[in-house]
Amino acid sequence: MKTMKSGRLVSVLWTLARWTILPATLLAAATVQANDKLTLLTSWYAQAEHGGFYQAVAEGIYDRHGLDVTLKMGGPQVNGMQLLVARKADVIVGYDFQVLKNLEQGLPVVAIGACFQGDPQGLLTHADVKGLDSLKDKTILVATSGQTSWWPWLKAKHGLSDSQTRPYTFNLQPFFADPNTAQQAYASSELFQARQQGVEANFYLFADHGYPPYGSTLVTRRAPRCCSASMTQPWKVGSAT
């Protein structure tokens, strides 16, 4: 089996994006060779937001376009950026702020696209909370990843304090048990689980309140041939080389 050179990786990613996140009518076809191998590491266990990737594998779409795609699931103990830089993955589903932080540290990474115009992250609260400006007396459950992404934004925007936070362990029982608790959530996950349990809850999508990042950013290593090209369209450089 063949492995891809760095210059060809971006061209392959363009085809990957074509069949997962972007309307086909907007994209030009990319040229790839048969058996090009690509490992995509998602940001979490299999979930609705990643459905397009799994569907493309199941229906043989990647195969028909000359891609041998291996999907690997992320999780709470998986450091996707570390695996990307170590070449254990070719593409990861990451976060805007994560990319910027790693660029500041000199790591050769680049964002090539995003699955969502806005981040699907938000805050799950009990029914008495009428907005994000009503959290100053609440305990807020924040995962480790949230401490360096959405929490600094929420804290600064609404005058909150680090002393209000407790670790979020991806278990909703603390939220169910304590009516004074709020927690991070996805509308397609934790909110759905709360409603299944009959818990009256509100969900506030951060993107609706000014949180700027895209959602589920696709990140890869920066190919040497792409270093001087526009970072917004690196696939064009890969296709031309």
TrEMBL record:
<keyword id="KW-0732">Signal</keyword>
<dbReference type="InterPro" id="IPR027939">
    <property type="entry name" value="NMT1/THI5"/>
</dbReference>
<dbReference type="InterPro" id="IPR015168">
    <property type="entry name" value="SsuA/THI5"/>
</dbReference>
<feature type="signal peptide">
    <location>
        <begin position="1"/>
        <end position="34"/>
    </location>
</feature>
<protein>
    <submittedName>
        <fullName>NitT/TauT family transport system substrate-binding protein</fullName>
    </submittedName>
</protein>
<feature type="domain" description="SsuA/THI5-like">
    <location>
        <begin position="48"/>
        <end position="218"/>
    </location>
</feature>
<dbReference type="GO" id="GO:0009228">
    <property type="term" value="P:thiamine biosynthetic process"/>
</dbReference>
<dbReference type="Pfam" id="PF09084">
    <property type="entry name" value="NMT1"/>
</dbReference>
